[in-house]
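FAQ

Q: What does a record look like?
A: Structure on top, sequence underneath. For example:
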């Protein structure tokens, strides 16, 4: 099955303006080297649709637009506590039944749950409403801390700006790291945040000179992935003890130095596998693994396939 091209975002009355903007920005038309998406908003009745900030959106398409979509995205809306009407639920189920990808952004997950598409699956939503989703739909395994949850042809994401993470994850999964990274750069966004990363940090790191040093160390680490990069070395460069560095790193990023480095190495390996003909052994060396066998073990564990299979999957033939 080719990657998705045709994207329909369901925008009911009270649609979140931020959610609609995120989807339209990610799937906007860009340069010739990037996918050209056919993106459209759709709603119950085409015409002006009131947004959550009171401004109207002109939505030109009805629910029939979902029938042509490869990806159907349920956007957040203010009335999520009341299930959508039968026509919407039928359209979501029909899209899923014919093989389309279906995703719920923020409280858009409530629409998918009302359609029964999340039954027996893991899912997430905005952390503030995770308990409500779990209470309303006990058959759904709600993960309140996750940025997004991938269940194959059904994916759900957390609130607000995490909509970018959801969309970029789908791009990464279907088109590969190079495409997702290029679009992220165009949007001035982090290339990848793991779905298991916490939605928010209870105690943000204070902004001081130590945070400036931490930022410099992270930038340095990105340029030196071919080196071992033990935490002790990163802490030394940040002029901190190892314990203080680990504590401040987690406060600033929501993850541990080890997990951050692992994600960074694998992301860079994905891009090299997609965009170069370098032998796997050389890819492993450039991202800091001692051998191709170590890279393969990490790839299989984290991505589900060995590097060579990943490369074949994302090789575009003329």
């Amino acid at each position: 099955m080719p990657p998705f091209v045709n994207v329909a975002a369901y925008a009911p009355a009270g649609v979140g303006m931020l959610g609609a903007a995120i989807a339209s920005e990610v799937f906007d038309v860009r340069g010739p080297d990037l996918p050209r998406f056919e993106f459209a908003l759709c709603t119950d009745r085409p015409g002006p649709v009131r947004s959550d900030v009171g401004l109207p959106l002109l939505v030109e398409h009805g629910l029939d637009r979902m029938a042509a979509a490869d990806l159907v995205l349920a956007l957040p809306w203010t009335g999520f506590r009341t299930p959508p009407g039968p026509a919407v639920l039928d359209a979501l189920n029909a899209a899923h039944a014919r093989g389309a990808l279906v995703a719920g952004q923020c409280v858009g997950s409530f629409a998918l749950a009302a359609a029964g598409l999340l039954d027996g699956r893991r899912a997430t939503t905005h952390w503030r409403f995770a308990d409500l989703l779990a209470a309303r739909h006990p058959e759904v395994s709600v993960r309140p801390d996750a940025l997004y949850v991938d269940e194959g042809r059904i994916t759900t994401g957390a609130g607000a700006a995490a909509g970018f993470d959801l969309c970029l994850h789908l791009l990464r999964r279907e088109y590969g790291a190079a495409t997702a990274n290029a679009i992220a750069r165009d949007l001035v966004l982090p290339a990848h945040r793991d779905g298991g990363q916490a939605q928010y940090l209870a105690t943000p790191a204070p902004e001081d000179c130590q945070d400036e040093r931490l930022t410099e160390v992270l930038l340095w680490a990105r340029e030196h992935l071919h080196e071992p990069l033990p935490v002790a070395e990163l802490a030394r460069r940040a002029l901190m003890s190892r314990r203080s560095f680990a504590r401040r790193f987690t406060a600033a990023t929501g993850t541990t130095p080890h997990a951050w480095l692992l994600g960074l190495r694998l992301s860079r390996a994905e891009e090299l596998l997609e965009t170069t003909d370098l032998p796997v052994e050389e890819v492993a060396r450039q991202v800091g693994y001692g051998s191709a066998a170590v890279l393969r073990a990490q790839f299989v564990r984290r991505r589900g396939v060995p590097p060579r299979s990943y490369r074949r999957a994302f090789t575009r033939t003329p």
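Q: Is there anything notable about this one?
A: The two ends are 16 Å apart (CA to CA).
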